[in-house]
Amino acid sequence: MSEETKKVSVVLCSYNGSLYIEKQLDSILKQTYPIDEIIIVDDCSKDSTREILEEYQKRNNIIKLFFNEKNLGSNKSFKNAISLASNDYIVLSDQDDIWFTNKIEKQIKAIKSDNTKPLLVFHDLSLIDENGKTVFPSFWKLHGFFAESFNFKKLFVFNIVTGCTCLINKAMKDELMLCNMENIIMHDYLIALIAYGFGEPIFINEQLMYYRTHSNSVTIKEKNTFFDRVKGLVSRVRNRNYLLPNILQIQKYYELYDDNLSDEKKKLVIKFLKLKNKSTLQRFIYKRLMN
Fold it and tell me: Mean pLDDT throughout 260-268?
């Protein structure tokens, strides 16, 4: 299959996104790579998001709108949106970012072959604030992520893959549809686990979009004082549920996909799941050893 024949669906989930969604839609529509369809699932927005989306649909016939009857949350809304995509390649989008015009083109070019494995192509981001000002040029550098050395085991405790950077294929879509999203921290986390567990992860060590940070959702590490870090450490050690969401997520993952994993990766998963019956301190030490 040549690059030109790779049809692409973009899937976007919205919720009260009226402040920024027009800028994001404009950046999607300006992509240098042709987009076959844009699937938008709105999760019961209470602002003017629905009206904005309907206006864009009138001007762009590749936009297909779907409105949830009840609020499903991010994970289930994205699963629903992905299920509605009709093409072999699907690009995920948040509602308040801004894509570089060549984002999809570069992701498509990074695909080396058309195989049956679940595929993930992801990349770095540049952070902007609510006003569109760049606050940090590289999300990966900010958080100390090194895509070159990332692996399946490290995913047990932290995720390098941001959902809005993901391009996936139909094989990945089929695997995602097996999960009811219960005990899954985030849909992008599950995508990463599938790709690194038994699929094909491809990273692009380049910023291909502006990722909008909000004061109530993203903390810049450099702004944390020493006291804040010590306070956070004490809180984590005292927390009896420390790493429990990760453990429950890996347990769900293993239930669904154990037959796809190599013996070596099964052993890694089983060892991690034993942390469920370990002390908080033992869980903390395990995570520190992953850094």
Answer: 98
Can you list the pairs that 238-245 forms with residues at least 24 positions away whose Cβ atoms lie under 8 Å?
238/280, 239/280, 240/280, 242/280, 242/283, 242/284, 243/157, 243/275, 243/283, 243/284, 243/286, 243/287, 244/276, 245/183, 245/185
Digit-coded pLDDT (tens) for 236-245: 556 678 999 9
With bands split at pLDDT 50, 70 and 90, how would you rate the model's confidence at 228? low
Residues 210, 48: Cα–Cα separation, whole Å: 23
Three-state SS at 1: coil
The C-alpha atoms of residue 145 and residue 255 are separated, in whole angstroms, by: 28
Where does the pLDDT of residue 202 fall: very low under 50, low under 70, confident under 90, or very high at 90 and above? Answer: very high
**Dihedrals phi, psi of 9, to nearest 5 degrees:** -105, 140
Given a contact cutoff of 8 angstroms between Cβ atoms, the answer to whether 163 and 186 are in contact is: yes
Round to whole Å and give the CA distance between 103 and 272.
36
- CA-CA distance, 291 to 287, in Å (whole number)? 7
Can you tell me the mean pLDDT for 189-208? 98
**110 CB-side CA count, 13 A:** 23
CA–CA separation, 95 and 50 (whole Å): 12
DSSP assignments along 57-120, one per residue = HHH-TTEEEEE-SS---HHHHHHHHHHH--SSEEEEE-SS-EE-TTHHHHHHHH-----SS-EE
CB atoms under 10 Å from CB of 33, counted, come to 18
Identity at 30, one-letter amino acid code: K
Distance CA 132, CA 173 (A): 32
Strand partners, 121: 167, 202
